[in-house]
Design brief:
CATH topology of the domain at 240-404 and 533-584: Cathepsin D, subunit A, domain 1
Structural class: alpha+beta
CATH class of the domain at 240-404 and 533-584: Mainly Beta
Number of strands: 29
Strand content: 25-35%
Radius of gyration: 23 Å
Number of helices: 7
CATH superfamily of the domain at 240-404 and 533-584: Acid Proteases
Largest sheet: 13 strands, mixed
CATH architecture of the domain at 240-404 and 533-584: Beta Barrel
Shape: globular
Distance between the termini: 13 Å
């Protein structure tokens, strides 16, 4: 029997609600202008983009010093190190030591601190103040109720954003562990990017994302860049890209793409396309959505693309346990697939081609990985050597588009310019350990090196908070800053990235000065330390989720999330609507 499905029209209720939160260009500019507290200086330099490492963080207020991978930033003074992930909300969230877990979770608070990327203690920060409701933006459901605080956010060893207002949740927001961590809100009216722009710390409300590598081999750090991108993380010419208009109607992040190819590559040299619809017909091109915050490599519609994957790779557990929790990971790679004892894991790669854009090969070592589970007693991740994760989540939803999740950003580099209303995708240079930051203006044009300020460089990661020249900065700050286009914009939502030309920006357009402040207890942003090496189960017992799954398999009543049979009423992930994840039924 086909698993229960969720109609796209229901899902659209949530995605469409984002439109009410979209700012007009003039409104965003006015908000940035009104919140600016820094004075401008004469000159023709623009702020150097700000880079924050995606790396391992020993997170604050974890009793056993848990290590969590995420965007490494700290909050407060003394600094409290936290691991963040981006989310397309307009506001940012930081969890404290209460109300951390999903209401259905059986894990304790120690484990939840790890899941959430650490916990913030307001009373322990000397720079904490009460937040102002005037400093927050509207967000659609399921945004949780929050207590507002204002504090210093240290973005890296050299840059701090002072008096930034954020929320501390006072209730669970119903996302289970799909989006478990502390949140940097990067929605269309992002208060975080608005604050950076208003304080003249970035040239535009632009962010770029590269996950790095954390598979079985080739481990390395990633980064998120504000105000531009890192050209060292791009493979090939900068003009060899896919550029399109942001489309929040169809995709949560606005990052809708067209794919001309999606196929399997076997090591005997054979290939197989998996672009099929639920009737078994080949579909080209295919529509997909990029989601930098979701776990895993892909979310695939289960009765078309994923069924084709299962058939070609002989993934028998999909057919034996579809619609149940048996084939699901409840560990680090939440709700992705598990290879069980009767399965032979796929050893090939996945090839993807963007229509009129780059082609990338997703290597097997980054999506067929050891299972990482939570030890509930210590709150530490450990490696369960008896299981293997497949970082693909089959979704029982009609007309569900292929979703390319955070691990896919190992193979592509994504830049989003909220001011221009465009995004750009390049093939990533996953082997690069260097950094070369390029500023981008409001029109999505690259700004030449001569226009970039050098007083606050890209951090060198030596941990002393000192300022040295970044690799992309020029010592000269006089003269006009030139720019080149990344793409011609979205005609029918799709356009080919190309250099549109070089022009001089009039003197006086970019009079920016970077707010300087050394971060207390700075985090390493060097990109040299990879993901943690997980030990075997440190306490020799199963996690709470594994215990729950075992009870479920034995027919013992357990939490609704782990039931094999349909739950009544269904789990409502998007609070305030009737939208829910059908695969959890």
């Amino acid at each position: 029997m086909k698993a229960p499905t969720l109609r796209l029209s229901r899902l659209a209720l949530f995605i469409a609600s984002i439109s009410s939160c979209l700012p007009t260009p003039s409104a965003a500019a006015a908000a940035a202008s009104s919140s600016s507290s820094s004075s401008t200086t004469s000159g023709t330099c623009v702020p150097t983009p700000i880079s924050a490492a995606i790396t391992n963080v020993t997170v604050a207020n974890s009793p056993n010093s848990a290590i969590v991978r995420g965007v490494a930033m700290s909050v407060g003074s003394p600094a409290q190190n936290l691991a963040f992930m981006p989310y397309p909300w307009n506001n940012s969230l930081v969890y404290d030591t209460t109300n951390l877990c999903d209401a259905l979770s059986t894990e304790n608070q120690i484990s939840c601190i790890t899941r959430r990327g650490g916990a913030y203690s307001a009373v322990a920060s000397k720079t904490q103040k009460g937040g102002s409701s005037a400093a927050v933006a509207s967000d659609p459901s399921p945004f949780p109720s929050t207590a507002l605080y204002s504090d210093t956010w240290n973005l890296n060893a050299a840059v701090a954003l002072e008096n930034y207002t954020f929320g501390v949740p006072v209730n669970d927001w119903g996302e289970q562990f799909y989006y478990p961590q502390n949140v940097i809100g990067l929605g269309p009216n992002s208060t975080f990017l608005n604050a950076l722009y208003a304080n003249e710390m970035i040239a535009s409300r632009t962010y770029s994302f590269f996950w790095g590598q954390d598979g079985t081999t080739g481990q390395s750090n990633g980064s998120i860049v504000f105000g531009g991108y890192d050209s060292a993380k791009i493979s090939g010419a900068v003009t060899s890209n896919y550029t399109a208009a942001l489309n929040y109607t169809s995709c949560l992040w606005g990052l809708q793409v067209e794919l001309s190819a999606l196929g399997l590559f076997f090591h005997n040299g054979t290939k197989a396309s998996i672009l099929y619809d639920d009737q078994g017909a080949k579909t080209t091109p295919a529509i997909g959505c990029i989601d930098p915050g979701a776990p895993g490599m892909f979310d695939m519609p289960d009765y078309d693309q994923f069924e084709a994957f299962a058939e070609f790779t002989n993934y028998t557990s999909f057919y034996n346990y579809v619609g149940t929790s048996e084939m699901r990971s409840t560990g680090l790679n939440f709700w992705d697939s598990l290879y069980l004892e009767d399965d032979t894991p796929f050893t090939g790669d996945i090839d993807i081609t963007f229509k009129d854009g780059p082609s990338v090969t997703v290597s097997n070592d980054q999506f067929v990985v050891p299972h990482i589970a939570m030890d509930d007693e210590s709150g530490l991740w450990y490696q369960n050597t008896s299981l293997t994760d497949l970082l693909i989540n089959p979704v029982a939803t009609d007309n569900y588009p292929l979703r390319m999740c955070r691990h896919f950003m190992t193979f592509v580099y994504v830049m989003v310019n909220l001011d221009a209303g465009e995004f750009t995708v390049w093939a990533a240079n996953s082997q690069s350990n260097s950094e070369s930051l390029v500023a981008v203006n409001l029109d999505n044009h690259m700004i030449a090196d001569s226009g970039i300020c050098t007083d606050i460089p890209s951090p060198d990661g030596d941990g002393d908070g000192s300022s040295t020249s970044g690799s992309s900065s020029s010592s000269g700050t006089s003269g006009g800053a030139s720019s080149a286009s990344l793409g011609s914009g979205g005609i029918a939502g799709i356009a080919i990235g190309a250099v549109a030309g070089v022009a001089f920006v009039a003197a006086g357009v970019w009079f920016f000065v970077r707010r300087k402040k050394s971060a207390e207890a700075p985090l390493d942003a060097s990109g040299t330390n990879g993901p943690p090496t997980y030990s075997d189960n440190p306490n020799g017992h199963r996690s709470a989720y594994e215990e729950a799954a075992a009870k479920n398999a034995a027919g013992i009543p357990n939490t609704p999330e782990l039931y094999s049979e349909p739950v009544d009423p269904p789990r409502s992930e998007l609070r305030g609507t009737d939208v829910y994840r059908a695969e959890l039924e």
